[in-house]
Structure prediction request, 349 residues.
Amino acid sequence: MTSSRKAHFMYTNAVYWENQRVYNGDTPGQLSYGCINRVYYAFANVTPDGGVFLGDEWADTRAPCDGVQGALGSFMHIKQRYRHLQVVLSIGGGNSADIFPIVASSAILRDNFARSARSLVEASGLDGIDIVWPYPYTPEQGRDFLSLLAAVRIYLPEDRYILTATLSAIKPVLQNIDLRQSAEYLDTVNLNTFDFFGPWSPKSGHHAQLYTMSKDEQSAATAVKDLMSSGVPGKKILMGIPTYGRSFLNVAGPGHKNRGMGGADGAFEYNQLPRKGTKELVDKRAVAAQCVGGDGGFVTYDNPETVKMKAAFAKQKGLGGLFYSSGPSDAKESKRSLITTGFKTLHSS
Prediction:
């Protein structure tokens, strides 16, 4: 990567932006690009023959967006104004979790995927691709994942294109992948250091905790340690910050029996937190924010205080930076914004 593309950014501060947000009235122009140097445009879909296609033609190329056509069109305009900005296509929408194992297991289909991805990247003026196959469930799928990265690099050489992969932070999944070798193909590993607890969990818990109080729980720090001890250089790891909270009804904190969820599918967007009539608290040991009461019960999330601590951790460990999932759910005012807080903390001396 040339120095001009990394102007003013010692660390990566990346944001996922999902094309479906167009239907909520969100547009790329609403983000603050002084604090963002990479956008993951989500999601493109993959077909069983290895073809890569835009996930929503209308949202991507035709919806009125910031005075141009399509959210992707808007990003291309923004990219011209902010020379440091990289726009990377995230591939992994729809039922791709079922399709990736098929495509990755065949040399012919891997080649189709790589050629198709390159065509789409070139036609759209994008900087590269992000492979969102977070759960290679078996060692065989882990080997196929590596073969897929190798095939993609033939068509998207590292001197011209960005290649990243978004992976689960859960040890049993990471153990299936040769992480050291994968890192040789990748610019960054985007580590999903959130969703440790949710509607699927038997107990309530902090869904994006940096540290854990018990050995049987997942945490961001443990996942980072697992990656680095497997040979992934710290500078190639981006730690994930969720811009949403997970809700557990009828409990006052972590460690209780899961008795149901509030919000939409158990989640509230960060810009709707803390919930009305509740007080925001920070668990400094776990590094997690929470509010209790109202319509959400116990809601666990990140706030500016926890993001400062996570950004400081990222710097201390020599990580490449942070990413946020997803941009439009962040708070609009900069004091409350997780993206702005993360950027400022990463780049403070």
